[in-house]
Design brief:
The protein is of the alpha+beta class. It is built from five helices and seven strands, in the order H-H-H-H-E-E-E-E-H-E-E-E. It is 29% helix and 21% strand.
């Protein structure tokens, strides 16, 4: 995060759909937060520093995302850099099983990231699940190759010890068709 700088990093976060609603017709969906200098000055009384960028690049700090946003971002990484427009349904069928309506896949954003950089991220996500030392190795499947990213968080007073565990990714590795984000609160 520090190497690319806060502007490039936070612009990519916005291109991945963070900081705005997904576009699905959901009541109460939150946009999350991708901070900028104005937000930091208002709430933290300073501009974004390298330490903020480093923290946000590993999923800590002021960047806030919903599981749905994370799943959508995983789809953008999986397909090589096009953030898809989300749909609530895959298709509508009549009583005989004939498809009467199916949304056409659409691109919401083009990430504009070097294809080699996307491939490095995909390889890292594959290693998380499929290599011996990966933090997500217990998610490995015998019938397909899954790519993933693990994460944890703590919040609130230390006495409550509130924790989150995330697991997000896509599958199969060689021809991604599904992306997901799972959140465990406990």
């Amino acid at each position: 995060g520090i190497d690319v700088g806060p502007s490039a990093f936070l612009n990519l976060a916005r291109s991945l759909g963070f900081g705005e609603r997904t576009g699905l017709p959901l009541i109460g969906e939150t946009p999350g937060l991708v901070p900028n200098d104005e937000w930091m000055l208002r709430y933290e009384k300073r501009r974004i520093l390298d330490g903020d960028t480093a923290n946000m690049s590993i999923g800590q700090g002021s960047l806030l995302a919903t599981p749905l946003q994370v799943a959508q971002a995983m789809a953008g990484i999986a397909n090589g850099g096009a953030l898809p427009k989300l749909h609530l349904i895959r298709q509508v069928q009549d009583t005989r099983g004939r498809v009467v309506q199916a949304p056409i896949p659409e691109r919401r954003n083009w990430l504009g990231v070097d294809p080699h950089a996307v491939e490095v991220v995909r390889k890292g996500m594959s290693d998380v699940v499929n290599e011996g030392g990966g933090t997500g190795r217990s998610a490995a499947l015998s019938y397909t190759k899954l790519c993933g990213k693990t994460g944890t968080a703590q919040w609130g007073p230390q006495s409550k010890n509130q924790r989150l565990a995330w697991f997000a990714g896509f599958l199969p590795d060689d021809n991604p068709r599904y992306s997901f984000a799972v959140l465990y609160e406990g």
